[in-house]
Specification:
single chain, alpha+beta, three-stranded mixed β-sheet, about 15% strand
């Protein structure tokens, strides 16, 4: 019961810190990125106690035949995290490009996942919609400036 109380207190503190930080951030181009970071911070605060409980449960229930499902579960979780990161980057790029009236067809993020569970984004590859071929350079420069991520922008037309 004490663990639940500590967990709920940690969540309250994380949400309070996030709200204070969000109020301090000025409106503008970095507001979306800060909201993304704050959201990730709150999600980590929610999930952190689970990472402490899972090793205890697996030690109590460990059997030789369970090693394979554990690796399947870990692979599934890693795939879901990667997919969520891809979706988040896609939404962020589409929103930023819509601010300068450019539409895109496809967004792919080239990422590395480290042993500690962190994800580093190496490059974002963007394919613009037809009719926006002349905007490749503008879109690339804008995304690199706003997101701080190396981008490669291309188009069919």
């Amino acid at each position: 019961m004490n663990a639940v109380r500590e967990w709920s207190a940690a969540i309250c503190m994380a949400v309070l810190a996030a709200a204070m930080l969000q109020n301090l951030v000025p409106n503008g181009s970095m507001e979306r990125m800060i909201r993304f970071v704050i959201g990730a911070f709150v999600i980590c605060a929610l999930i952190a106690p689970v990472s402490q409980i899972v090793p205890q449960v697996s030690l109590d229930l460990q059997q030789p035949s369970q090693s394979q499902p554990d690796s399947q579960l870990q692979n599934t979780v890693e795939d879901q995290i990667s997919s969520a990161a891809q979706d988040s980057i896609y939404n962020l790029v589409v929103a930023e490009l819509s601010r300068i009236d450019i539409k895109c067809e496809n967004v792919a993020a080239i990422m590395d996942t480290h042993e500690d569970g962190s994800i580093s984004i190496n490059k974002v590859v963007v394919k613009l919609a037809k009719g926006y071929g002349s905007e490749c350079r503008k879109a690339s420069d804008y995304l690199q400036k706003e997101l701080g991520i190396k981008t490669e922008v291309s188009s069919d037309g």
